[in-house]
Amino acid sequence: MKKKADTPIYWSVAAYEEWNLIIAATDDGLCYVGSPEQPLAPIAEWAGRRWTGRPLQRDDGKLQPYAAELSAYLQGKQHSFAMPLDLQGTPFQLAVWRALCGIPYGQTLSYSELAEQIQRPSAIRAVGAAIGANPVLITVPCHRVIGKDGALTGYRGGLDMKAKLLRLERDVLTAEGARMHA
């Protein structure tokens, strides 16, 4: 029987329109979604820090269900994810990431609202740092956090990606509302 430390982290590329996102999973669930066009080196470095001693192994077949769910989201066909996640972080980071998953599709919160939601109203900067450390873009929807003034703020995938994800959600909800009232 393999020890957990010997078990690979599987990776693949999820392609959708102009985006090629490196995704990675353990046997327990999705653990990484990269930025568009990001090379493998940063993921290898991240995996080495978070999953010491575990090799990266490409496995397109094993990652296909995760890529399919991401594609369905990016096509506006699904609002949430059923895939299992395998997140490694501090208790504070995990609390922030759980709170991110509670932000409804098509809605946004400010960093201070999120800090209040996790009952840490003075920890706005720490909330921002935890959001920045989110390893699974899109599926843990950190793109739904904006500045208090409504401005788009930092995003590991870049502000262009963040704007596109927010626009996608807004457009899907608008189209669904129009169909309901037609």
Descriptive overview:
With 182 residues, the chain is an alpha/beta fold. It has 2 domains: 9-75; 91-181, Winged helix-like DNA-binding domain superfamily/Winged helix DNA-binding domain (Arc Repressor Mutant, subunit A, Orthogonal Bundle). 42% of the residues lie in helices and 15% in strands. It is built from 6 helices and 6 strands, in the order E-E-E-H-E-H-H-E-H-H-E-H. It has helices spanning 40-50, 60-74, 91-101, 111-117, 124-132, 159-181, and strands at 9-16, 19-26, 29-33, 56-58, 109-110, 145-146. The strands form 2 sheets. The chain has a 4-stranded mixed sheet. The N and C termini lie far apart (58 Å).
Features:
single chain; Arc Repressor Mutant, subunit A; 2 domains; two-stranded parallel sheet; 6 strands; globular
> What number is the mean pLDDT?
90
**Which series of helices and strands comes N to C?**
EEEHEHHEHHEH
Q: Radius of gyration, Cα only, in angstroms?
A: 17 Å
Characterize the biggest β-sheet.
Answer: 4 strands, mixed
> Which spans have pLDDT < 50 for at least 5 consecutive residues?
none
CATH topology label of the largest domain: Arc Repressor Mutant, subunit A
Number of strands: 6
Structural class label: alpha/beta
CATH class of the largest domain: Mainly Alpha
Approximate shape: globular
Total helical elements:
6
Main location: cytoplasm
Pfam families: DNA_binding_1, Methyltransf_1N
EC number: 2.1.1.63
Domain Methylguanine DNA methyltransferase ribonuclease-like: 9-87
